[in-house]
Amino acid sequence: MTYARYLALDELLACQHPQSELDDEMLFIIIHQTKELWLKQMIRELQLAQSQIRSDALVPAYKALARVSRIQAVMTLSWDVLSTMTPSDYTRFRHVLGPSSGFQSDQFRTVEFMLGLKDSTHLKFQEDRPEARAAMMTALTEPSIWDDTIIALARAGIDVPLGQLSRDWAQPHVFSPEVEAGFLQVYRDTERYWELYQLAEKLVDLDDAMATWRHKHVITVERIIGGKRGTGGTAGVSYLSSTLSKRAFPELWSLRTQL
User: Fold this and answer.
1) If pLDDT is split at 50, 70 and 90, which confidence band does 230 have?
2) What angle in degrees, to the nearest 10, is found between the helix axes of 145-155 and 23-54?
């Protein structure tokens, strides 16, 4: 066993196939491939955290969730590297991307689904990739980590509407005043519900980091292409800006006003 063989470096370093000779295109590819590797790890950590939450092993779940938020921070910093590419640099090779777009990332959508931000329309981009589509479908149709947390809240003896405990999991979570009230009990009696309280704060870390990532994405795209349409037919900056208000765990944000 060698370092290169263990990490499959020959295969890994042969995965970059720029369509031009421009240095900036290689940077563009490596940045996005690196993000996909981190997304792969995030999915593993979220799966682990969900299995632990489902078995009421809340404290062990903190580690996986903390790791995800650290990965999110690294991914956000990578926008700073990409922003060293100027609009003129990007224009020289943008045409080779064709209709491809980060909007089509199956792993990013799988992460969103696992957090509870579910939208089945994204499945259509994976019709030629059955394994990727199947992974997305699993995340879409199973409870999200927020669903699992709400169910754990009920197991702790706090009243939760039955509709939050058994529903069509493929539908996005809708803000629930009753769920907010349940977590208010947790936040008002942290000593009694310490494990749930800490779990909730770990989830807020994820939502916070996702919002920061989205914001930096918008700024970077605006810096490089301005108000032009994105590849893949998206509206570019205007579409990305519309995602900034997304929150996977809305009740954990709204309850702060009530405390």
Assistant:
1) confident
2) 20
Q: Is 232 left (phi over 0), alpha (psi -120 to 50) or beta?
A: left
User: pLDDT band at residue 231, thresholds of 50, 70 and 90?
Assistant: confident
Task: Please write the tens of the pLDDT for every residue from 83-127.
Answer: 999 999 999 999 999 989 888 999 999 999 999 999 999 999 999
Q: Which amino acid is at 134?
A: A
Q: What is the pTM of this model?
A: 0.94
Q: Which residue has the tokens 């792993």?
A: 107
Residues whose CB falls within 8 Å of the CB of residue 193, separated by 6 or more in sequence, listed in order = 156, 185, 186
Looking from the CA of 166 toward its CB, the CA atoms found within 13 Å total 1
Whether residue 49 contacts residue 65, with contact meaning beta carbons closer than 8 Å, is answered with yes
- Other C-beta atoms closer than 10 Å to the C-beta of 106 total 21
Burial (CB count within 10 angstroms: exposed 0-12, middle 13-18, buried 19+), residue 111: buried
